[in-house]
Amino acid sequence: MSSPKTFQGYLQDKGLKSTHQRDDIVSYFLQKSKHFTVKELYREVQNIDPKIGYATVHRTLKLLVDAGLATECRFSGGITRFESVKEGEHHDHLVCLKCGKIIEFENDKIEQLQIKVAKEHNFTLADHKCVLYGYCSGCRE
Amino acid sequence: MSSPKTFQGYLQDKGLKSTHQRDDIVSYFLQKSKHFTVKELYREVQNIDPKIGYATVHRTLKLLVDAGLATECRFSGGITRFESVKEGEHHDHLVCLKCGKIIEFENDKIEQLQIKVAKEHNFTLADHKCVLYGYCSGCRE
DNA sequence: TTTGATATTGATATTCATTATCATTTGTTA
DNA sequence: TAACAAATGATAATGAATATCAATATCAAA
């Protein structure tokens, strides 16, 4: 819930331990800027250390979310994807319904309007997700 | 995928059959304007006809989506909710993270900006979902 | 260092929503 | 009404997310 800058800082704040599994998973995840499913990250991390278990990958991703270093995205099909978050940054997504391509976009005007809408309904805004579904130039019929 | 005005019309267009189960489920669903999970609708429809099965409720909701008379919403927790759609109308949602209250809102400016964003990225927009998470006036700490 | 309390790991089991299967029943058309 | 195709409902299968638990690793304090 807090937002320290590093995963190590988060572990310390929470009294959690630093392990080589966590280090491997986190550094690989943060280095690649991809929208990982647990399974995808698990498979790729296997190349670094084949002994790392699926559950550990899943748990570590949850820790990253709690640390404010990742967010969960559910675009369609009920599969959760995790993406890394840069300090103070927010973006939304365009998703191609055919090829699955994911494009990130930022739009301050939309953000401002969302804040306004929340205010009008007497809501304290905590988070917001905006997903546009469509067809990319390559997949258009 | 097409958008006829009635469920009966949809069934005819698709060569599907009209059954009393479908009638019961659809008329109950459309009459209540709620964000139903399959389980919730199943339980409530049991009061009308206890013989209706879970699978039929699920299948009928999927038909309603295909008919353009309902949409699926996934707010959090991986549970799919279905809500009825009025002709030519679109709205987005404000969700309270504490009590789960769901408020619908419409904002043309946001819609217009979304269309613009899609165009800028050379996307043909098919659908869009915007969810604001926060705390309603009653749940604010 | 070594110890000991405590957290973590990894294999596996469990949960739960969604979807598929299939024998039986029902609706529709000729 | 008969014949065929589709729908139903019970149940099984699927698959992602989470829980369990014995074995192991981490880290602060002695």
* CATH topology descriptor of the largest domain in chain A: Arc Repressor Mutant, subunit A
Low-confidence segments of chain A, given as residue ranges, are none
What is the arithmetic mean of pLDDT of chain A? 92
CATH class annotation of the largest domain in chain A: Mainly Alpha
Q: Which structural class matches the secondary elements of chain A?
A: alpha+beta
Secondary structure: number of strands of chain A: 5
Count of domains of chain A: 2
What is the ordering of alpha helices and beta strands of chain A? Answer: HHHHEEEEHE
CATH superfamily of the largest domain in chain A: Winged helix-like DNA-binding domain superfamily/Winged helix DNA-binding domain
How do the strands line up in the largest sheet of chain A? 4-3-5
SSE map:
The structure is a homodimer of 141-residue chains.
Chain A (H helix, E strand, L loop, with lengths): L6 H8 L5 H12 L6 H9 L7 H13 L3 E4 L7 E4 L7 E5 L5 E4 L2 H13 L3 E12 L6
Parallel strand pairs in A: 3-5
Antiparallel strand pairs in A: 1-2, 3-4
Helix pairs in contact in A: 2-4, 3-4
The structure holds a DNA duplex (30 and 30 nucleotides).
